[in-house]
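Comment on both lines for my students:
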Amino acid sequence: MSLGAIDFGLLVDPAIIVVEAAVLHLSLKMAGRQTQKMRYAERQEIVINAATDVKKSVVFGGLIILIVYFPILTLTGIEGKMFTPMAKTVSFAIIGALILSITYVPMMSALIIKPSSHEDHGISQKLIDAIYNFLRKILVWGMEKKAAIVGFALAVLGAGIFGFAIIGGEFIPKLQEGDLVIEVNLPVGTSLSESLKLSDKIQAELMREFPEEIERIVSKIGTSEVPVDPMPLEAQEIVVVLKDKEFWKKAKTQEDLADLVSDVMQKFPGIVVSIQQPIENRVNELMSGARTDVVVKVFGPDLDTLVNKSNQIISIIKEVEGATDVQENKIYGLPQINIKYNRDHMAYYGVTVSQINRAIQTAFAGGIAGIIYENNKRFDLSVRLSSDERSKTENIHNLLISDKDGNPLPLQHLAEISEDVGPSEIGHENLQRKSNIGFNVRGRDLASVVTDVRTRINNEIFIPQGYTVEYGGEFENFERAKNRLLLVVPIALLIIFILLFISFNTFRDSFLIFSVVPLSAVGGVFSLLIRDMNFSISAGVGFIALFGVAVLNGILLVSKFNDLLLEGITDPKERVLIGLKDRLRPVLMTSFVAALGFLPMAISSSAGAEVQKPLATVVIGGLFTATFLTLIVLPVFYTIFKKDQSESWYKKYLPENN
């Protein structure tokens, strides 16, 4: 993830700006010459002047790109462990690229670049001229119809806001591990033999239904000698090893196959099933204590109330579209024998509590009756009822207790004995009792499903005082990371604005460049929608990287417009057309080279590509719209912010006059 996220196009952007400036200055210097070659000393001086002209754009642009990665460094939890190394790697790489762009690149430009005296600069210049002529016609019209351009920009921004509102949300895209794991929970107290029989039936049914998709199946029941993953006998874990997708016939994606497997598991009544992937299953358990995507935690003091509210929540979750494999921890369900002592009868017969306790413990758990010696070894001699006798409830009723005179009495004369269902598992978190309701998400995005569940729980279920409902699992990580970014990203944008103000010494130019930031995000939003991707933390990182490149291009244009003012061109509209022609090539190069750098990540299909694809998709799509809007909207905004000093500026730029 760290090395894969390094965009080599992003790293060469500062060098592109310097080299492009050097080529432009050398070409202008050679324009008046015919055959005379340029000496190295002269080239060196020209290149130094060219680098000096763009140094502000290079340095401040690089610093801004560094700052946009600052929010990533503040992430905590799993998202921090995933993306912080990437941010550090990219930051150090950009620092190195910045240093080289103002030292090594100018030196090599003066040494290697030897401008030609002929005017034909090849197909690249013809392409740039064609693009400029196209943009010039739009700008000439747009600077006369400013209201139309402003309306267009606002419409694009509104479309982006609408698109972001309808886009789904998730923590990180699910990795396709290539295998499935099926958690099967049977009623509490199910014997090992019954669990084994059911496991064999499930394996045979799955192999019969999916012979082309499943390679083999392995089941795990209970706890091994080394209890690293303890499980009760009524729970089993079925690992389904899948074949390559090229052999599949009944499903195209792993999610579709999971839905089909879930339908097959409905043939086995009385079980609760959760279908995930092996690594995903373990990560969810470590994060939230439940092996599902989302966990609804109900906290409170009374077990009966917890069970009641949990059942109400389960009925709601099952009605929400996209929520599958609904599970709860089994608070009740363990058969119990309750013995309530009758103290009046015990006092009458002279029997003590400790006497009855000792008799019950000896009969069913065993009691030490003596010591056996074998050479130098000694063993405790324990006595208790046989296994057959312990399994019969009536033997508890008939267990004999001696009264004060030594006469035997059945236990049923001294206590009330009843059979009941008691707690089998009582969970705690932060010193509070809790009930976990877990469910997986398939067919919809995580954020929408949890939002629907939360809304219905708040509206339809009364939560008594002292009881709380929380949401854990992947959704908890998503909320934590999103809230952190919502806090830190505005701070980073404020720092960027301060840097822009330091660079241009005017709020007007700073706001002008800053207007590109929200417009650049529109392309990222629609690229996610086109590729049917949800907003995730990975996509959020992509938006952060996108903002840096968009601001860099804005700096390039506005700084050139202002330089032309210092050269005596007072008409802002004329400055726009001249400056755009000079800076069109570096703007296009910085954008498209950065986009090409992310292209392998966007089309990758290797293991782990699911996490990188949203990041690359946002940057590529965002750069496409950001570049277009920077070249059209930004110059028009510039003429709006600057006072027009010439009413006849457009006449010499009309197409019929060129």
